[in-house]
Amino acid sequence: MAVTLHSLQERKRQRERFAVITAYDATFARAVCDAGAEVILVGDSLGMVLQGQDSTLPVTIEQMAYHTAAVTRGNTGALIIADMPFMSYDTPQHACLHAASLMRAGAHMVKLEGGHWLAETVTALVRNGIPVCAHLGLTPQSVNVFGGYRVQGRDEAAAGQIEADALALQAAGASLLVLECVPTPLASRITQQLSIPVIGIGAGNGTDAQVLVLHDLLGLNPKPARFVHNFMEGQSSIQDALAAYVAAVKDGSFPGPEHSFN
After folding, report:
1. Among 36, 2, 8, which Cα is nearest to 208's?
2. How far apart are CA 48 and CA 54, in angstroms?
3. Disulfide-capable partner of 38 in 18, 24, 32, 85 (CB 3.0 to 4.6 Å)?
4. Known catalytic residues?
């Protein structure tokens, strides 16, 4: 049975965790599905792990559509989220135009990075039949504003702003939320406040789901972030490693305190 936003919402209500993994081609999309992951994220992280860029900024909407179409051809039932790349949603009109190309390529929803200022854009997308996943905390497209890849929301004012942004984006119509590199207590509090499912990465184990970049969980990053665990360790195949990640997310053993921030 295909995963839908409704079934993910039901998982949140039942307090059943679900797993998200990035994929960029048909072969790995099929492997991710076989491992039991409910969601595939076609991430603009492809700029770094496939293209060798030092950030996600050079990725284009045409590249995202190409990889989304490839993933779609290998998908066997997961919900596919496609990232909107840098400057592809600077206005609601541009967002709708570019998101439409990702949906035509096979995405089931799109993901945007940013806070309450995107509320009008989120509403416009949803009004036009395009579901939205919001992304708060460390938003990699803003790395130059942040001055590097840093944990967000550690002081009271910053935490309050992330919390307010999450509520505003939900009110605007977002159906999912990614929280990246925020303290565990903040992520847990936001997850409890929101009615939509929350996906964490470097946000502790109090969220409804977890996401990791495929290459990170397979141990291919020579300088992994703190929130990454190499699931290839102790496994005899890539498929076993993917299944181990999915199992660890669902039983709550990943992420542990060593993968989180306080």
Report:
1. 8
2. 6
3. 18
4. 180
